[in-house]
Specification:
The protein has 74 residues and is α+β, with helices and mostly antiparallel strands. It has one domain. The protein contains three helices and three strands. The longest helix has 11 residues.
Amino acid sequence: MELDNTEAVKRVVLSGLGAALLPEMAIRDELRRGELVALSLARPAPRRTIYLLVRAGAEPSAAAGALLKFLVRA
């Protein structure tokens, strides 16, 4: 799924339908409230700080899990 609107992307992640790469400034409030969890990326090192987002307290879908494994592995 491709979305070009940051708010729409956050809604998809919050509903548990996927994971996303977004800049910190776009998700600061959701992180502070504990709605999203930011995972550090192992490689490649991005030129700016981005986080892979998943819904707090939820198991990712199979597709999101595959993306997580691919992006987070060292």
